[in-house]
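pipeline stage [seq->struct] | target=Vacuolar iron transporter | organism=Herrania umbratica | residues=227
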Amino acid sequence: METTNGTSFNNQKFTIPVVNDVEQQTSMELEAKDDFNYSKRSQWLRAAVLGANDGLVSTASLMMGVGAVKQDIKAMILTGFAGLVAGACSMAIGEFVSVYSQLDIELAKMKRDKQRGENRETEEEEAGKEGEKESLPNPLQAAAASALSFSVGAMVPLLAASFIREYKVRLGVVIGAVTLALLVFGWLGAVLGKAPTVRSAVRVLVGGWLAMAITFGLTKLIGSSGL
């Protein structure tokens, strides 16, 4: 069958637009990148919340333990401050060593890959490797974040007890402030970890209470025995 100008319909070529497919693929790549960045940020934030919770529980437990045998506010504050400094240094050093070991492993792996004869790398591959180098863990950054998060949590019982002279009132205020902070940290950790919020908050709260109660009770027992 031919048209009036002698051109056959069978010889005509039809093209299918692919603009929508390209846009869809680009959109999917951007969404995947955003999900990766959000996941990475969530991991850092969750680690910071866990570090703050560690500082909160350990420092509060130390202060409660000393408060079990000494009613002096100075002894309690000095104990809490010593716990803050020691815990922050311990967290920083531990995180630095751990992340530095991970960095050594990643660098060794990249060096082995480079020595396998990848001499003809394209520009995209080179750019990808530069991106991998930029995404490598930073030991100093990790150590500073751990020390800071621990210190933030440890400041809660310290500030709660700093200006209260009355012994029983001071213990009650410390317990109340720590309880509120435990609920907040438990809720934040559950949200960032996509876990049930109520159950996680209660679990963190009960764990913190147990730590303070055990430290208070054992120190009271040892102190009353005259050791």
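stage status: PASS
auto-comment: The mean pLDDT is 80. The two ends are 111 Å apart (CA to CA).
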